[in-house]
Structures are given as C-alpha cells and as structure tokens.
C-alpha cells in the first residue's frame, strides 16, 4: 500500500513511563510522578466514590492498553503488534482515512452501509463508489470488483451489513479478497460478529496472516454492551498498525474503558447469554411479523429491517409520539425501518405500536 507521503517523518506519540514501570526498572518502592501535569488531588469525593475501585483515576490511561491487548492477542491468536485500540471503532475508521486517503483517491463500499465510511472519506475529500444490494438483499462482490480501480485505496465490507443484517459468506469473501489488488486495503467491519448464526460465516481475522491488505474492525459497543465507554479495535498486519500509531491521538482509550473491556472479555459467558436472549427475541419477532404478513429481512445481527411499504417517515413519527424510537432514512430504502432487538417486553410494545400506526 502507498501511504500518504507526509507520514514518512511522523513519529507516533511516546508517553512517559508509568509509575509501575519505573518501580520495576529501578527497583524502587515509591515513585513520585510529576511529569504529565496531572492533578494530585484528583476529582471530587463523589467521583472518587464512584471510581473507588480504580486507583489511578487522576493518571493518564495506559497508552499501550497493555492488559487488554495481551488478553485479546491471546484470544484471537495474533501478535500484540497486530492490534490498535480506538475511542470506539469509528475513531479507527477516522485513523484509516487519515493514513490512506488523499484527493484523487476513492473508497469502495456497499450501499447502504455504515455512515462513518462515507463521512470520513468526505472529510479527506475523496470519491465514494458503491454497489447496491441484489433482490435478496445480499451484495454481489463481483460487481464490487468491477468498480475497484487504480485510485481505490480502501474497500469497506460490513459483515454483517448494517442496516441490512445480511452477511458475506466465507467463499465469496475469500474469492473477492483474492482478486482485489494488494495495494488496496480491505477493511472488514465485524461490529455484529457475535450475533451471527449462519454457518457459512467466517471472521476475516482468520485471513489476516495470509493477506497483508486485510484488516478487521471490532467493537465492545454491541454484543459486549459497552457503547457508552467508547472502545473498539482493529486487527491488522503490523505494518498497517505502525502507520496508524502515527495518527492516533495519545491516550485515546480511557482507563475505565480499558478495565471494563478486559472484564467483559473475562466474562464472555455473560455476553453469550445476552446474545442467546437476542436470538430468542429475533425468532419471536419473526413469528409475529410472519403472522402479520409484514416483510422483513432475516438478520444475522441485533437489528432487523422491516418494510412498511409506505413512506417510513410518517410512521416513524407516529411511533415516536407513542414512545417507540426506531431508525429510518437509509439510502435506497425509503419504505423501511431498522429496529434494534430490545428485550422481549420492548419488542411486544414495538409490535403493538406498529400495528396501531400501520392499521
Ligand atoms: C455500531 C457500529 C460500529 C461500532 O462503533 P463504535 O464506535 O465502536 O461504537 C462500527 N461499525 C458498524 C457497522 C456499526 O454498526
């Protein structure tokens, strides 16, 4: 890949050493850290109370995200330098755009897909090329291959797709990756990976070792339930990570986020049990929608697209008035709404209100 020329002389941020590192290195019991303009009095008693389990709340976060990195490297069976963390995976989309995209370039993606690919490409002033879905709401990657050209720098695949909830299957994914020029970065966004039930699905993490131009985005915002804490990560070849480190904002992932994400990984059974519940609720919803003869797309994620067969804007507004918030306004899908899978009780209310407003 050809990175932006101006990055050649950029060095990634190097933080000062932590108290713990200095203690170890020089065999000391006590160290006074007065190097980073932190506040020795910390925060108010109320905040201290909330954070009482976090000892170093007045100290900047671990810039290397050491513990979480070790744990994930182990779980995913990749080297530690294949990982980089972001303030949500959206921040990593921003970083990828900053290292690769300049005027004259283009990105290629699916339509509809995740809005950040579009906005970050626009910020970098590059062109956006898209393919739309087929009649079965899947994407035809052969058509995507046709629009990749010599100016294409990034291809974004959302797998499963948001908002459609459909997936790219193992064979078509590998077949596609094999044919994309090696200078093009293929970003597979797996924000909904944990929800997939289709047996023909694979995580592209399996492919990273063989394809240096493939990387994967993951997040703790969805299945792990930590959206408020803003933490996601990329798995990629170390060459890509090295470039990303240059544009990463120092200390971009808070200490609390790092700690909670680590706990979430250790408590994987909790995540799995909530995914099970979501699956049950999806099956329940399928039944309800089938009975009411309402069109929907079978989903591999934790949301579902429903076709109201009329302008969705009015319906969404009517539902809003009744206290149910759903999303509409997706490109090419004027009559559709996207409904996130809440609790079973919430979905019962949703069904009742939907019936009310569509009559
Ligand atoms: C929700 C979502 C993300 C995750 O964003 P975070 O910044 O990690 O919260 C990324 N990609 C897609 C397609 C999503 O739907």
Instruction: Work out the helix count.
Output: 12
Q: Structural class of the secondary elements?
A: alpha/beta
Number of beta-strand segments: 10
The ligands bound in this entry are: pyridoxal-5'-phosphate
Give the overall shape: globular
What is the residue-averaged pLDDT?
93
Strand order of the largest sheet: 1-7-6-5-4-2-3
Main sheet attributes: strand count, strand direction, barrel closure: 7 strands, mixed
Helical amount among residues, as a percent range? 25-40%
**N to C succession of SSEs:** HHHEHEHEHEHEEEHHHEEHEH
**Beta-strand percent range:** 5-15%
List unreliable stretches of 5+ residues: none
Radius of gyration: 22 Å
State the end-to-end CA separation: 55 Å
């Amino acid at each position: 890949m050809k990175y932006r020329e101006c990055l050649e002389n950029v060095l990634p941020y190097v933080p000062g050493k932590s108290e713990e590192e200095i203690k170890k290195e020089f065999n000391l019991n006590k160290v006074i850290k007065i190097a980073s303009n932190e506040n020795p009095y910390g925060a108010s008693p109320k905040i201290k109370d909330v954070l009482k389990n976090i000892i170093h709340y007045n100290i900047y976060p671990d810039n290397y995200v050491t513990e979480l990195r070790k744990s994930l490297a182990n779980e995913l069976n990749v080297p530690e330098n294949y990982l980089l963390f972001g303030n949500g995976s959206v921040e990593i989309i921003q970083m990828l755009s900053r290292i690769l995209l300049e005027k004259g370039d283009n990105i290629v993606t699916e339509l509809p897909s995740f809005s950040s690919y579009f906005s970050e490409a626009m910020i970098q002033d590059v062109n956006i090329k898209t393919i739309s879905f087929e009649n079965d709401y899947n994407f035809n990657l052969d058509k995507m291959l046709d629009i990749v050209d010599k100016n294409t720098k990034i291809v974004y695949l959302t797998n499963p797709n948001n908002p459609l909830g459909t997936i790219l299957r193992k064979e078509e994914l590998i077949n596609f990756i094999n044919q994309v020029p090696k200078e093009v970065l293929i970003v597979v966004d797996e924000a909904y990976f944990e929800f997939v039930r289709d047996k023909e699905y694979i995580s592209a993490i399996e492919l990273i070792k063989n394809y240096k131009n493939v990387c994967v985005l993951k997040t703790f915002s969805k299945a792990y339930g930590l959206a408020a804490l803003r933490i996601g990560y990329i798995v990629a070849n170390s060459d890509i990570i090295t470039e990303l480190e240059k544009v990463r904002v120092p200390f971009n992932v808070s200490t609390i986020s790092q700690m909670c994400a680590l706990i979430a990984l250790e408590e994987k059974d909790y995540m799995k049990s909530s995914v099970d519940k979501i699956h049950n609720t999806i099956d329940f919803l399928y039944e309800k929608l089938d009975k009411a003869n309402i069109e929907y797309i079978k989903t591999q994620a934790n949301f579902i697209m429903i076709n109201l067969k009329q302008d969705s804007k009015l319906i969404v507004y009517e539902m809003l008035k009744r206290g149910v918030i759903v999303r509409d306004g997706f490109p090419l899908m004027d009559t559709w709404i996207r409904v996130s899978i809440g609790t079973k009780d919430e979905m019962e209310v949703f069904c009742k209100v939907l019936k009310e407003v569509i009559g």
